[in-house]
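One such given next:
>
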Amino acid sequence: MATNGVDIANLVRDTIYRATLLLDDQKWEQWLELCDDSFHYAIKSYSPEISRDMTYLQGSRKELATMVKLLPKHNTDHSPLTRHTSVYTVDVAEDAKSARAISSFVVYQNMLDGVNSHIDAGESRLFLVGRYIDVFKCDDSKALFVKREVRLENRRLDKGSHWPI
């Protein structure tokens, strides 16, 4: 049971890492269970050419629940994605009822089919690089995502990018 800011910070880290594992395993509904009903999700990247953020995906928890139910029906590259997440900071509010975290991530894709002469079947390639900017609702036993902004360094997304990152 969490009793102070350090315990809450550990709950937040645990939630971030659990989310990473669930996304890797494509357990979309279980991932959404880590999210509060008020959850909002967005994938964005800054474009220097237009001096603005580009938004690739955004939605509420309800909208994401609808989307993930349809994911098995999408025609997509089935090469698995594997995320490596490192939590950099967790800032717990004084009342310990909320927290903010920043994490970096890289996503690797293990190619099931060779895509060109440079990448053969069975090889892994770097798929995405970015940061998670998360806001949590916390209590003594859990931390739930209220907001996740995925900030990509990439500006070109490939097949499979309609999945939550």
In short: The helical segments are 5-24, 28-32, 61-70. The domain at 5-152 is CATH 3.10.450.50 (Nuclear Transport Factor 2; Chain: A,).
